[in-house]
Amino acid sequence: MTTPVTIIGAGLGGLTLARVLHVHGIAATVYEAEPSPATRGQGGMLDIHDYNGQIAVEAAELTNEFRGIILEGRQAIRILDQNGTVLLDKPDDGSGGRPEVQRGELRQMLLDSLPAGTVQWDRKVSGARALEEGSYEVTFADGSTVGTGLLVGADGAWSRVRPLLSPAAPEYTGTSFVETYLFEADTRHPAAAKAVGGGGMFAPTPGTEIHAHREKGDTVHTYAVLARSLDWFAAVDFADPAAATARVAREFDGWAPELTALITDTDTAPVHRPHYALPLDHRWDRRPGVTLVGDAAHLAAPNGEGANLAMLDGAELGKALAAHPDSVETALAEYEQAMFARSTEIATEAVEFFEGLFDSDNPAQHMSDIFSGEAGTANSHA
User: Fold this and answer.
1) Cβ-count burial of 235 within 10 angstroms (0-12 exposed, 13-18 middle, 19+ buried)?
2) In this predicted model, what pLDDT tens digit does every residue of 371-382 receive, in sequence order?
3) What does residue 15 show for φ and ψ, rounded to 5 degrees?
4) Is the pTM here over 0.85, yes or no?
5) 70: helix, coil or strand?
């Protein structure tokens, strides 16, 4: 294939696509809005699944590098009720098929695998438009432009490429995370650290949940999950960390102190992360020379699959383009048909799981019953 590929977004999906294309000798350029790889933190832990994310790693020929960043023991799962009673304590015996890695280290692994200059930093896209059929112009915030005959939007929830294919816009799902961190948790926050255990901890009730995960070193990353409106969160003054922490913690009044300490003792300012989603069956008619991967194509509320699906999208698109060097349209059609089916199936299963969980009278026991049989369903919010 002689058409160079233009990829918007240097997240996991875009970088996996660029790497798989490189493996097959296909040129690509990735344009990323962030000024550098170190501009911001890349989020927390990701469990990379043997049925999608690890398939992408293999297609990228990075299996050995991936094994080097796995954090052993982090597949352990604990489920507690709001009183701190342990309902399930499932150790990591190495058989889970979902090893945990730090998102930032996974992204860096992909960046390190690409030729110098593949990623163009500080190139924020303001829009994209069609020229003649199958040709596109991308405009950057500084007014510069680039033309391409093969454009891939890997630019996330608020994709600037998506409008070329679909009028769909993400809508608020009704739930949000508030993120906090505890550093040196075992020594400075021993009760909270003990409650979390060595991997992931879930304590769900109707409308609220505390989910925490032990990250690299002695760090505990907590997600306070709240089913509240955007107006409710707008009334919380996140510019005042102490006031915001106290306001969020009030939603967990009466919970065990070792659980609420994951919020009240935070070593960082709390951060609001609202959840948005595209329609479960989001798809579009085939348009020459352009497609989407990851959240740009099938944004869903956090369900443990987003990063995995983005990587698999990138890998499958790269393989399709390599398999059809003389017919880009055949490659894009093949990729999209499979991507639509798998993303819809997984998103639907996740919605059913969470609806069943929070519609139950006792979400913690319900979750414990599910995970004690098979921890393969939604075992991470990442």
Assistant:
1) exposed
2) 887 434 444 444
3) -70, -35
4) yes
5) coil
